[in-house]
Fold:
Amino acid sequence: MRARGPKGEMDMKKAQVERLIERDQAVSGAPQVHIDLSPAKLIEAAVANGEGVLASNGSLVVDTGERAGRSPHDRFVVDDPAIHDKVCWGDVNVPMDRESYEHICSGVVGYLYGRELFVVHGLAGADRNHSRKVCVICERASQALFVHQTLVRPTARELASFGEPDIYVLAAPGYRCDPETDGTNSGAAVVLDLAHGGVVVAGTGYSGEIKKAVFSFMNYLLPVEDDVLSMHCSANVDPMTGQTAVLFGLSGTGKTTLSADPNRLLIGDDEHGWSSRGIFNIEGGCYAKAIDLSPIAEPDIYEAIRFGAVCENVILDPETREPDYSDTTRTQNTRVAYPVEHIKSVRLDGRGGIPSVVLFLTCDAFGVLPPIARLSREAAMYHFMAGFTSKVAGTEVGVSEPTPTFSALFGEPFMPLSPSVYAGMLGKRIDSTKARVYLVNTGWQGGAYGSGYRISLAVTRSLVAAALSGDLDAGGYEHDERLNVDIPLDCPGVTPAVLNPRHTWTTPEAYDEAAEKLAAMFERHAAERYPDLDENVLAAGPHPLGE
Structure:
C-alpha cells in the first residue's frame, strides 16, 4: 500500500480490516465471513437472506430502502494534514475531523463484527500501471455482487497475490450514525479518508454510493500521484480505425446510452483515466439508469440485464416477475449494474488509444443550447469548468424534475481537487493531441422544460456519429456570438432547422430573451466561482449581447 500517513494509524486501519475478515470461525454458530464468492453464490445468499428476488430475465432485483439515490449532504472527506492543501473544500468536499471519522469507523466495525459478511477484492483501473487494489467488506450479499460486477475483476494470479489493499471500504447500510456524536447530518454517512485509504458507507442501501466513493478516491490519487487526468465520463472506440472518444455528462444526460453504440466498442460507461498512453476504464462494469428502458431504443443495455446483473428499485409484476421499467412509483432513479462482459460490443481489456474526440453532454432545461456545437480549446476548458447541465429527476434525494445547475467537470460531486487542476490537464491534452471537442445538448428544444420538447435520441445519435466521423465539420459552421460556440450548418440525416435552436422556438424574440438570460447566468457563475480565471478562457464562454 502506498504510504498515506503515520505507521501507527495505518497499522490500526489494517488491524480493523483484518479483525473483520480473519475473525475466529472456530466457535460453533459464529457468523461466517465469505471471501470473493462467485456471482451465483452471492445471488443465492442474497435471495436466501431476503435481500432481493430474481426477475424473469434472471437479474437480482433489490430495494435500496430509504435512499434510492445519492445523498450529497451526507458525504464527507476527512481533513488531514497530508491532503489538506490539495482538496477543494466546500459544499462538495465537506471536511470531517478525524475524531468524528474514527468514532464512526469504530462503530461500524463493531456493528459488522457480529454479522455474516461478504468480502470482495477488486481493482480500480484497467491499466495495471495505474490501478489500485480495493477491498470492500459488505453487510449484504447483494452489495457484494454489485461491487464484484462494477470493479475491475482481478485475474486468479492477481487475486492470489493481492496483499494489502490501497483502498478499503466498509459498507454497512443497517448502521445508523448519530448526528450529535458523529458530526453527521443524518443517520447516513459516506466518509472518505484520502490520507489513509479508508471509506465508510453507512446508513444507506443505495450501492451507487460505494462505487462513487471508490472513483472519487481515484479522482484524487490519479492526478496527484500518477499525472493521469481522471474523468467522470464514458468512452468507446471504433474497432476498425481505433479512434477513441470520451463522453462527459452527469446522470440523465445520455452518457451511458450514447456510449453503448453498436458500431463501436464500449471501453466503459462512467469513469476513466487519460494517461500518456491513452484511455483506461477505472471500473469493470456499468451502472445504467433503467427508467423507460426498451429493447428498441437501448438494445445493448436491455439485453445486458440478465443473470448476474443487479437491479435497484425496479418494479416487478408480482406474478410473472417481469420488470416494468416505466413504473416510477418507487423512484425515477431505477438502476441496473452489470459487468462490461454483458455488453455485446465491448473492449474487454478496458483500454483505448489517445482520444481524438471529446463530447460534453449537457441537459439544457432552458432549451437554449444547440443540439451540438464545436468548441475551441479555451471554450472546452471553460465549459469543462462550468459543467452546465440539469439534475434529472431521481438521481439525488429531493430532485423531482429537471433542475438547472453548474457541476464543474460534469461530475463535481466526485472530484476532490480544484476544477482548475483537471481543466488545466485537459487543456494540455487538447494541445498535445489536437482532439476535437463538442458540446452536445440532450435536453430541450423549442422552449424550456414544460413548453418545449426533449431532443430525440435518434437526432442526438446522428449528431454524435457525424462528430465522430468528421462529417459534421464538412458542412461548415456559423458562430453564435452570444453563446460563443460554432453551430454546424449541416449534418447527414438531420433537418438543418433542428441544428440552430433559435429556429425551433415559436418566435426568435422568445428564444433571444431566454438565451440572453442563460448567457448572463453563465457570466455570473464564472465571475462568482472563478474570479481568477484566465482571461482567454473567460472570454471563450457565453456573454449576453445586451440587446
Q: What stands out?
A: The domain at 230-282+349-539 is CATH 3.90.228.20 (Phosphoenolpyruvate Carboxykinase; domain 3).
